[in-house]
């Protein structure tokens, strides 16, 4: 059967809204007028009749499909198997953009018009809208009379745009199924945007890429989320296709050097080596850098703490500033939510690199996040601009909003809300609204009714939500005006309001829990875990000292004396090697903690078996570069030195100590000026609490 793109979209939306959808909302989704929707419904009704289904209209509810569930399923299946379909304007623009990104030469407008069965004027109008999107990805649309049209720009930006299109138009399950199943070449399937985008890469290549990833992904200390897995497969698939066409991508050499020491780089290197062999293709090392960034961004939240990396402490400091800045702009505190801090540290390193290099990511939930957390979104966006002094794309902000929102809801146990419904009499209409509220809003547990004349007698503070079918003007300021039938649009608005209230409750809720261990917890596994952490802490505390160093106003002299003292104690095998590692680390970025007299020197070296944690008091302050890249004065150096290969328990403990130094003003001041005895007392107390939480 023939079905137009708009008719197909209308049916898809009707199937997705079994309880009904208004004409206005449908028109908004399809970006057309309500009159156009009404005109198309006649053809839609004819299509529905072929499946013994009917289109019914209910006042206040909109339109919906009525009929047998099996027939609805058959209709849904048929939409994927029609012989021909045209595209909605948005889909058509995606097809045009995909074609231009794939083309090496310019493309004539008439060729695009003929392929899409539209006029040249329509294609020209589509190109105007495409041009706006391309600007976001730093690409240029070149249009010349007699020349045609062409997309120009960096290869990395072209790939980012293609990835965006795939993530926008291809469902995750469809993509995974596309990898898993063998598509028959002669099958008659709808030429949808999803199919065209999936057709950018050969299906057999996807299978090879998937196998290459699966061979090595177990070497990573975390698992892939589906979205991260798909993102990596998409990147590799596009990379292979583009490399075979002679297109190459370039990665910053300095950052590539920094990534080489990471576990993710080693895994990325193995993936590329497998693909080089499988496709007999010369793949440049730059691709390894981009794959490493995908792997770094794929880390799932875990209880393993924060891995100490060369720039991790800088990220810790910035993460703390970001949390504090957000706290200052909301009515609540995230201070007791440790997972938020850990999540931000893990998330921000690849994020900041992407922003620095102009790499764009796709966030399919962005529109929904911006709608549901509008105020929090803007607060976090402003905070990021202030703390990092760079502009964060909305896609990145949306991911950060999820971290903050999840932290705010942590410990929130879904307390039910109460609502008050007000009408002129407090009888019929308010009960109609109450019935709809209980039916559609499961978060509302208790609903009261009141008339306009009873407002003064009620304690309105006991209600989380106040709805009214009449304007209250000066009676109440915080209420929601609704119709007596409570439309779908009003329900959506109320759901967003409820989310905001739950978010605020989650932030304000002070979750306290006492540490209690039941007999069942004393298993052999738990005892072994306790022993591992205890051994690490014992190793650190047994060698912890506060050393007095005669600095003579020279940072280099101070570092040399610190390294020599450690070598004299046989804590390290080679003073020069440690000195070189510390100097190299400092060259990557400032180590001074802003607004303190502290500098945190951290590195990994070979030749030692146990980690070292030490505080050094300089006799004379020295000038160093801070983590915010400003000159500062420091007279206490904190050293954190670990072996190249260390256990998860050691990583956990070192991560905790890094966090402790900048946790709050009180602990920072202790590290700045406390005696060795006082510092040991602090460390013993905090590490004891830490191990109790871990075990």
From TrEMBL:
PTS EIIB type-2 domain ranges (all copies): 417-506
Domain PRD: 200-305, 310-414
Gene Ontology molecular-function annotations: DNA-binding transcription factor activity; protein-N(PI)-phosphohistidine-sugar phosphotransferase activity
GO annotation, biological process: phosphoenolpyruvate-dependent sugar phosphotransferase system
Record protein name field: BglG family transcriptional antiterminator
Secretion signal, residue range per the UniProt entry: none
All residue ranges annotated as the HTH deoR-type domain in the record: 4-71
Keywords assigned by UniProt, alphabetized: Repeat, Transcription, Transcription regulation, Transferase
Source organism per UniProt: Streptohalobacillus salinus
InterPro entries reported in the protein's UniProt record: BglG_antiterminators, DeoR_HTH, HTH_11, PRD, PRD_sf, PTrfase/Anion_transptr, PTS_EIIA_type-2_dom, PTS_EIIB-like_sf
A family per Pfam: PRD
Residue ranges occupied by any PTS EIIA type-2 domain in the UniProt entry: 539-686
Highest taxon in the source lineage: Bacteria
């Amino acid at each position: 059967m023939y079905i137009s793109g708009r008719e197909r979209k209308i049916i898809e939306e009707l199937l997705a809204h079994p309880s009904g959808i208004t004409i206005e909302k449908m028109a908004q989704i399809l970006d057309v007028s309500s009159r156009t929707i009404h005109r198309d419904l006649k053809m839609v009704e004819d299509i529905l009749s072929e499946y013994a289904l009917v289109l019914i209209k209910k006042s206040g509810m909109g339109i919906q499909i009525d009929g047998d569930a099996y027939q609805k399923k058959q209709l849904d299946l048929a939409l994927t198997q029609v012989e021909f379909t045209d595209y909605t304007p948005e889909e058509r623009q995606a097809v045009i953009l995909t074609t231009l990104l794939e083309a090496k030469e310019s493309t004539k407008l008439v060729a695009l018009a003929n392929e899409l069965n539209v006029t040249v004027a329509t294609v020209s109008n589509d190109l105007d809208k495409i041009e706006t999107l391309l600007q976001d990805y730093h690409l240029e649309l070149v249009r010349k009379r007699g020349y045609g049209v062409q997309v120009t720009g960096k290869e990395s930006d072209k790939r980012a745009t293609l990835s965006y299109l795939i993530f926008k138009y291809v469902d995750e399950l469809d993509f995974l199924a596309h990898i898993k199943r063998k598509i028959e070449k002669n099958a008659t399937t709808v030429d949808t945007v999803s199919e065209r985008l999936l057709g950018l890469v050969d299906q057999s290549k996807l299978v090879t890429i998937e196998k290459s990833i699966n061979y090595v992904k177990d070497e990573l200390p975390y698992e892939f989320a589906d979205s991260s897995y798909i993102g990596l497969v998409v990147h590799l698939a596009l990379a292979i296709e583009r490399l075979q066409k002679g297109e190459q991508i370039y990665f910053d050499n300095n950052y590539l050097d920094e990534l080489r020491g990471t576990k993710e780089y080693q895994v990325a290197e193995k993936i590329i080596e497998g693909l080089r062999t499988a496709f007999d293709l010369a793949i440049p090392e730059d691709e390894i850098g981009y794959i490493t960034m995908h792997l770094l961004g794929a880390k799932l939240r875990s209880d393993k703490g924060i891995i100490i990396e060369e720039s991790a402490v800088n990220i810790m400091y910035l993460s703390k500033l970001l949390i504090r800045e957000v706290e200052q702009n909301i009515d609540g505190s995230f201070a007791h939510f440790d997972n938020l801090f850990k999540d931000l540290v893990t998330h921000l390193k690849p994020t900041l690199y992407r922003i620095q290099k102009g790499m764009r990511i796709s966030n399919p939930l962005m529109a929904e996040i911006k709608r549901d957390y509008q105020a929090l979104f803007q607060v976090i966006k402003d905070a990021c601009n202030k703390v990092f002094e760079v502009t964060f794309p909305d896609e990145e902000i949306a991911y950060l909003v999820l971290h903050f929102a999840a932290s705010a809801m942590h410990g929130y146990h879904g307390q039910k809300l109460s609502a008050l419904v007000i009408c002129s009499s407090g009888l019929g209409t308010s009960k109609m609204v109450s019935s709809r509220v209980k039916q559609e809003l499961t978060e509302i547990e208790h609903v009261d009714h009141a008339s306009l004349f009873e407002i003064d007698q009620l304690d309105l503070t006991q209600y989380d939500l106040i709805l009214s079918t009449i304007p209250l003007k000066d009676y109440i300021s915080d209420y929601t005006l609704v119709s007596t039938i409570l439309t779908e649009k009003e329900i959506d608005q109320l759901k967003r309001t409820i989310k905001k209230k739950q978010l605020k409750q989650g932030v304000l809720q002070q979750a306290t829990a006492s540490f209690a261990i039941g007999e069942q917890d004393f298993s052999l596994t738990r005892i072994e875990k306790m022993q591992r952490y205890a051994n690490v802490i014992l190793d650190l505390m047994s060698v912890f000292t506060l050393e007095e160093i005669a600095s003579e106003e020279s940072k280099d002299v101070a570092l040399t004396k610190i390294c020599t003292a450690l070598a004299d104690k046989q804590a390290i095998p080679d003073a020069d090697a440690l000195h070189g590692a510390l100097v190299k680390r400092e060259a990557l970025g400032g180590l001074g903690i802003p607004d303190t007299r502290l500098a945190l020197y951290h590195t990994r070296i070979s030749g030692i078996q146990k980690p070292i944690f030490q505080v050094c008091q300089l006799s004379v302050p020295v000038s160093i570069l801070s983590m915010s890249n400003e000159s500062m004065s420091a007279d206490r150096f904190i050293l954190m030195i670990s072996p190249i290969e260390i256990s998860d328990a050691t990583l956990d403990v070192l991560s905790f100590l890094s966090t402790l130094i900048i946790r709050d003003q009180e602990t920072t001041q202790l590290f700045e000026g406390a005696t060795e005895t006082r510092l040991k007392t602090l460390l013993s107390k905090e590490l004891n609490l830490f191990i109790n939480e871990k075990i």
